[in-house]
Specification:
10 strands; 286 residues; alpha+beta
Length: 286
C-alpha cells in the first residue's frame, strides 16, 4: 500500500514541543450528527449562512475578552491556528504544501462549552515537487518548482480564509489589515518555532516564511507591516525569536498582563530581558 504522504508530516511533528495540527481526516470519517453535542461547521458555510456573528458573540460573551479587537484576533486563534500550522510546518519540515480548501476546513463547535474544538482538514491534498517520492500519489498535486509550490499553498490558504476574515471584519469591525496581519505573523512564527526547537538555522526558516507570506499577499491578503526577527542571544541555537508586525491587542482585553513578549508595541530592551530569561529558565520558553 502506498504510504499516506501526510504521515511524513505527522512523524516530523511528533517530536516537537508545540505542534498544533488540525485533525487530518477523510470525508468518510467526518462526524455526521450531533450526538456528542458538537456541531461541525464547514468554514465557508460558517460565513455564507451567517453563523459567524452568532458564534463570535457567544464565544465572546461566555469567555471574553470584552474588547472587540482582542476578541477578533482570539476568534482567528481558535479557528485558524491549526490550519496555519499545518501549512507552515509542512512546508518547512517536509517541503510539501497542504492545499487548504473552503469546503474542506471544518470548525467543530462544542455547544455545551460554547467554544470551538480542534479544526479538521478533510481530504487534504498536498502539492509536491516533481522529484518527491509522493509525486505519483493520488492525493498530491505536482508543482513545477518551489515558487509554484508556495503559490499553490498561498492561493489555497487565501481562498479558504478570506470568506471567514471578511465576515469577521464586517461583524467585529476589526480591520482587514489587522486580521490578515495576524495570519501572516502566525505563518512566520510557525516556521520559526520548529526551527528554534530543533536547533536549526532561524534565518533560513524565516526566509521561507517570508516567501510564503509574499505569496499570500500576492493572492490578496493585506497588512501594514511584516514581522521581524529578533536575535536576543545569537550564540545560542534557540537565541532568536521574532516581533510581530501586527498587534493582537490582547493587552486591551487584559490590561494587567500588558504587552506580549512579541508585541510590536513593547520596547526591545524589555523584550531582550524577557527572552533572555527563557534561556536561563527553559520552563518559561514557548
Amino acid at each position: 500500500m502506498t504510504p499516506d504522504p501526510l504521515d511524513a508530516l505527522r512523524d516530523a511533528c511528533s517530536g516537537l514541543k508545540f505542534a498544533p495540527l488540525p485533525e487530518l481526516v477523510s470525508s468518510a470519517d467526518l462526524p455526521r450528527d450531533r450526538a456528542d453535542g458538537v456541531q461541525w461547521y464547514r468554514s465557508d458555510v460558517l460565513e455564507s449562512e451567517g453563523w459567524l456573528p452568532i458564534l463570535f458573540d457567544k464565544l465572546r460573551t461566555e469567555h471574553g475578552p470584552g474588547h472587540r479587537l482582542p476578541a477578533a484576533t482570539n476568534f482567528l486563534r481558535v479557528t485558524l491556528r491549526e490550519p496555519i500550522f499545518l501549512v507552515s510546518a509542512s512546508l518547512y519540515l517536509t517541503g510539501r504544501a497542504p492545499l487548504l480548501a473552503p469546503d474542506g476546513l471544518y470548525l467543530p463547535w462544542d455547544t455545551a462549552r460554547a467554544r470551538f474544538r480542534t479544526p479538521a482538514s478533510v481530504d487534504t491534498r498536498l502539492a509536491v515537487l516533481p522529484d518527491d517520492p509522493a509525486a505519483d500519489h493520488p492525493g498530491t498535486v505536482v508543482a513545477r518548482d518551489e515558487d509554484d509550490l508556495l503559490r499553490l499553498a498561498a492561493e489555497n490558504l487565501f481562498s479558504t480564509f478570506s470568506p471567514l476574515i471578511e465576515a469577521l471584519h464586517a461583524h467585529s469591525r476589526a480591520g482587514r489589515r489587522t486580521l490578515w496581519g495576524w495570519v501572516l505573523d502566525t505563518l512566520h512564527f510557525y516556521m520559526l518555532n520548529p526551527a528554534r526547537y530543533l536547533g536549526r538555522d532561524a534565518e533560513e526558516a524565516w526566509e521561507l516564511a517570508t516567501r510564503l507570506a509574499d505569496a499570500v499577499v500576492e493572492a490578496g491578503a493585506v497588512t501594514r507591516r511584516r514581522p521581524r526577527l529578533f536575535p536576543f542571544a545569537p550564540e545560542n541555537p534557540r537565541g532568536t525569536w521574532a516581533v510581530r508586525g501586527t498587534c493582537c491587542f490582547d493587552y486591551k482585553g487584559d490590561p494587567e498582563h500588558g504587552y506580549c513578549t512579541t508585541c510590536p508595541l513593547k520596547c526591545d530592551g524589555e523584550r531582550q530581558e524577557a527572552l533572555s530569561e527563557w534561556l536561563r529558565d527553559p520552563a518559561l520558553a514557548p
